[in-house]
């Protein structure tokens, strides 16, 4: 039996993720960071929406597609530079994912939809875009927050947590509060939410 369009696209996306030179060690094995990240994204999607469409599953899986190729320091290390970097990444990752979808046999409409989700278009009006944002925020809290809090002062951390919380749905909030965290991480989350 030949692979479906979905299986082809996932294989191409995961092959790209596996090329990430940034390696993490998990359970005694080395894995490309972006492959690890996309596995986390897919895992949280299954918790948020186990009946998600193929299109949303592809967008979730491709959200950081080839991100390592444009490092954060390629832009000015200030707020404007950060926003320019993020805008560039979303556009580029959406374009690459759309081409993968087309190459895998999806229609141009489906490919465009995947790209739009990756760009998080119509975030508060589009349930799938909101789910993608919730999942990305959950992965940040679960997988990246412990390291992030070591690199930044408390005021910045609290501000980022408030912004993260503001992007999430009520369901995302509920899931976020169930993520196991260190005492210090939990203390920072509580502090951020005190004024929300």
Q: TL;DR?
A:
This protein is mainly alpha-helical. Helices cover 67% and strands 4% of the residues.
Architecture overview:
Helices cover 67% and strands 4% of the residues. With 196 residues, it is mainly alpha-helical. The termini are far apart. The mean pLDDT is 91.
Which features would summarize this protein structure in a list?
196 residues, mainly alpha, two-stranded antiparallel ribbon, 9 helices, 67% helix, globular
* Oligomeric state, counting identical vs distinct chains: single chain
Secondary-structure element string? HEEHHHHHHHH
Helix content: 55-70%
Mean pLDDT: 91
How big is the Rg?
Answer: 17 Å
- Fraction of residues in β-strands: under 5%
Low-confidence spans: none
How are the strands of the biggest sheet laid out side by side? 1-2
Number of helices: 9
- Tell me the overall shape: globular
The total count of strands amounts to 2
Task: Note the main sheet.
Answer: 2 strands, antiparallel
Which class of secondary structure composition applies to the elements? mainly alpha
N- and C-termini, Cα separation: 53 Å
Q: What is the element layout, followed by pairings?
A:
Blueprint: H1 5-17, E1 23-26, E2 29-32, H2 33-48, H3 54-62, H4 79-103, H5 108-118, H6 127-151, H7 154-167, H8 170-176, H9 183-194
Antiparallel strand pairs: 1-2
